[in-house]
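Page 47, continued from p. 46.
Same chain as before, 221 aa.
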Amino acid sequence: MSRRRTLGTKKKIALLVSAAAVAGGGAFAMASTSNAATPQTAAESTVCQGLATALGNNQRFIEGQRAQPDAQSAARIANREAVIAQIRVQQKASGCVVGESAQGSQAAAGQPSQAAPPSAPAASQTPSTGNAAPGNAASGQQVCKGSTVTLSGEAGAPAASSNQFPAGTTLKVTNLDNNKSTTVKVTSVSGSCALLNNAAFEQVREPGKFLIRRAVIEKVG
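Result:
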């Protein structure tokens, strides 16, 4: 009787240990799955970076309109809020942190850029063809090789903003994924080599995409 009780107790302990191991493995698998599904930040994904930049620029525009409203501000704000809603949808679909915003991505019009200094290291990672700095590139020369292109969220005629080229510079941006190009003048400062406004981006974009991964940027004037 004593021997049977001893064996019974050992079997119970073994069963409990096995159950604990299975439960632990399941918990580990769930944790792994949870971690794998964690949304990506702008620092982890170029797609998320482009969307965060676009969201930040639209938010800055709305803030400016609310700070200095005019007769058309309400309509402009409503339009930008619709754009922001679409960007949030795209962030979710792309596995990005929904609502992440790069507020410092573009300086306010007429003010010195505060975003340009932090972008200097990035410029050194995407040198232009030849030894000249991008801003000193000859006309017709490809610049900022490897740079992605996104939209600023700004309205108006097709135009670009840049942290490499002064206002008045003419840039040609080609989307290699659909072979569409746009030639625009730089009108303001941003934190990117070439940031297209809404009208310019529409000329070269692929439907539903807010980032051009394979772009060729040329200085043409």
